[in-house]
Specification:
The chain is largely without helices or strands. It contains three helices and seven strands.
Amino acid sequence: MAFLDRFRRKHTPAAKPAPRERLEDLQRALDAQPAGNPRNLGAWDLAGLELDGWDLRGVDLREAVLCRVYIDERELSGPALLAALRDGLELAHMGKVVSVSFRNADLSEAIVRNNALIGVDLTATNLQQADLQGSWFLNTEFDNANLRAADLRDANLRHARLSYKEVDLSEANLEGVNLERVSAGKICLRGACLAGANLAAAFMSESDLHGADLHGANLRWAGLGECLLDNANLSDVHAESVNLMHSSLRGARLRRAVLSGGLLRNAIFDGADLREADLRDVQAEGASFRSADLRGADLTGAKLDHADFAGALLEP
């Protein structure tokens, strides 16, 4: 019995003080630090605290624990944690941000790099030009979020909630991002960089990818029906069995693109560069290739009933 008592004392975590006591301790810790200098909370545990309205400007939170913290910023005048983020507070390598609400917050130009954002609410949050590279988003809510020109290189959005949420990712850098099997219909990626991204089996129908850079991306089995891909760069993509039905790819670059087995019915490739593209066994009935460059393209086994090749360049 004595052994069991010692084991329980050793392995049972100490109970945390009540939230009110912890807030008072936090206030005392902040007051004890000299004004005018960056204040460092170290690995302070902020889990479960209500911080709305707190002045945390200049506080270094890089080692703090943010778990189930509620920070609902509606008027952009506080809490100052958000002001600190807007001023470039770096949360890089902080670890996990769990169940935090940043609803309606202005986090433009914030640095939240290499973190796991789990169950975070980013509804209507302004993340324009934010640095989110390398972060992992699990059950993160992006409804009406502004991520215009944000840096999401090598981020994992596979389990993010993006579909039909009117998310603005225009001009964002998503190079190497993981969007495998993500449901992201009707998303705005206009002018975004998705070079080398993994969009295998992603569902992105009705999305705006006008002028987007997808060169070298993995689009195998991706659902891109009814998308706007005019002037997009899809050179060297691996898009076997991709669904591009009713999509517009006017002026798109698809040189050496692998589209074999793809569904291209009623898609528009007018003026597109399809040189050396692999179009074997595609189903392109009713598709338009007017003035497209198809020199060197492989159309073996392609179904082209009612397809329009007026003015197209084809191998003799």
